[in-house]
UniProtKB/TrEMBL annotation:
This is FUSC family protein. The chain crosses the membrane at residues 21-44, 50-67, 74-94, 100-117, 124-145, 151-179, 438-458, 465-482, 488-504. Residues 425-550 form the Integral membrane bound transporter domain. It holds the Pfam family FUSC_2. Keywords: Cell membrane, Membrane, Transmembrane, Transmembrane helix. It comes from the Bacteria. Belongs to the YccS/YhfK family. The keyword Cell inner membrane does not apply.
Amino acid sequence: MKAAGRSVRTRLRDQLAASDPGLLRLTAGLRTVGAIALTLAVLASAGFDVTRLVAGAMAAMVATFAIREKQRGAQAVTLAVGLPVALVSVSLGAVLSERVVVGDAFFVVLIFAAVYGRRFGDRGTALGLIGFQVYFVSLFVGASAAQLPGLWAALAVAFACSALVRFAIVPVTPAGLLLRLRTAFRARLGRLVSAQLALLDAGPDEVDKALEDMREGTARLHETALMIQSRLEEGTPDESTARLVQRRIADAEIAAERLGLLLLSARSAQRADTLTLHLPGAPAPEVGRLPGPDEATAVLRRDLLALRALVVRTGAGGTGVAQLRNRLLGYRDEENLPVATPAVRDVFRAVGETARAVMGLRIALEGPQDESDDSPATARSREELDAEDAAIDAGEEAEAAEQPTGLRRPTTRAAVQVSVGSTLAIVGGELLSAHRWYWAVLTCWIVFINTASTGEILVKGYRRLLGTVFGVVAGILLAALVGRHTLTAFFLVLVLIFAMFYTAPLSYTLMSFFVTAMLGLLYTLLHTYSWEVLVLRVEETALGAACGVVAAALVLPVNTDRRTNELLVTVLERLAEVTEAAVGQLSGGPAGDLLDKARELDQALGDLRAATQPLTHPVTPLRARRTNARYVVALLETCAYHARSLAATAELLPTHPSIAADPRLRGAAGRTVRNIVTIADRVADEDVTVPVETGPSIASLLGGDGTARYGRITDRVLRHLERLDEAVVGLARPLSVPVKSPDR
């Protein structure tokens, strides 16, 4: 019974870790709710009235979510500096509440300063948020100069409670967060293997659903890998350990993705393109029964189950786990492969390589393992991993990129835009309501947060308005149910705040829904609730979103095309750098910092993916443009996968006995790098007319016929180079780059 109970707890923990990597959303929700609840308890026991309770609760929420630094010491400093900022802000809000023109002018100046403060990093962003939001709190509760002593006390209690919850009740250390992210990576890797199992067994009518699950699992695994990379420096004891973990995470991700692609190819009537894994909604290729003897299919199903067990199992594992590992790692030797077609044998090889990556990840995360039951194949894999670990060194410092200045600086431009938009929102908001105009300003402020183009602001404003409309309906129902029951209302407020922070990274519409529903309850507590008030909130929200869009479109505009083109050029430049460096190393050139280059490529691609949301949003009327944007991003993800794989293979050169440098690679892959640069130049300048080159296959350029196996370099390198070359040429058509056919 105890073992069964532990098994259930383990499964639940893995499911939670997979759905919320690092428990970041759960932690944010618990911290915020805990800080608010503690603040309310302290203020209520001291006899504060409802107005100060609401002010304290909102201040506790701001003090909690505004702090974004990763190190605890930096968080403490920002929180300490934030309190006097909050006291000054609420005081000015109360004093200027009766001086309409001066108060409005100061609010605009405060908004400019808060947005401009982002240029000073996380601390500047946090202090700007605190200053703006606390000024908004003073307007929300109708603060006056006579109420300031009580409000100062409420704010001081709120910041103290936020600090207590952050550092004592719900503490998060960099090492602890990294540990939870690693658990999430293992859980998501296990889910991806489960999706691959489902693809193996899927019938013709089920394959589209199985492929979509595998596609989603691959994307989520990559998302978690990026989250781990962003936390490595703070969560590991030294740079060498950070690089080792980064390398093992990348190996496991690439091996799992390659396993899925080879499995899909083995089930397909024709070769499955890597693009199939990265293009949402792309139909699955025609599939049939796995070719070859039925025994091979049964063995493959058994081995995928064993691989999943190796992934999710924690601890030493015992003799049974060692036997599973030995069997899977044996597939790395040709003589241990079962009798099957070449495509199916490739899948078994991929299972062996994934098992090796899982073992390397386990060693990197958990330390040395028991080697008493190792088979010769497992012992050789351990020796390779040990040699790779010894070869990992610190890397070079990255050069600082040149930053734009003046109005070209993003923070300056955004500060000017949001100030103009807020001025419009103040004027329009006061025409709608002399007492609730600040909702329009708040919406205008929020739609500019974490956005950089007019299209992004338009989409965010639409989502906020949609969430607000549905939130008004929920607020009406909740207010009717709660009535005058203060404790019930505060309890529901806490529930809605938790839901708001838990869903914020998933859906901005859902977050806006919970915010508006919560405000309906707060209005009930302040005895200012009415149908008219909630309808007015919808009107002010629509006005604020419109003012934000107008300001973004007319004041120092950055249209979506311009921003996506800039980010696209950056992605292509990073892709060229990774490819050229990896091919150079595979050709016998000096070793470089390929891990960091691959990470920069992934980050640039993530920025581009976020920036194209206005183009790929379901409500966009430009259907052809949406399809084109999705196709380009999917092709770039395909290119990034092959570039990462080349980089990972290049780093094996000093230690892997079956891989040796081949000087011919540099010349053979030169066309691919030139094509990437050509496409980047064309995107940056439409007047560039240099065409993309096509020609013979990479294998033929190396002197082979495309079918022979190579002794000095692996078939895998050739495969990745071929697919990368095809994907780069494929980018030419949607980006309107001319293609030059080879001379005959």
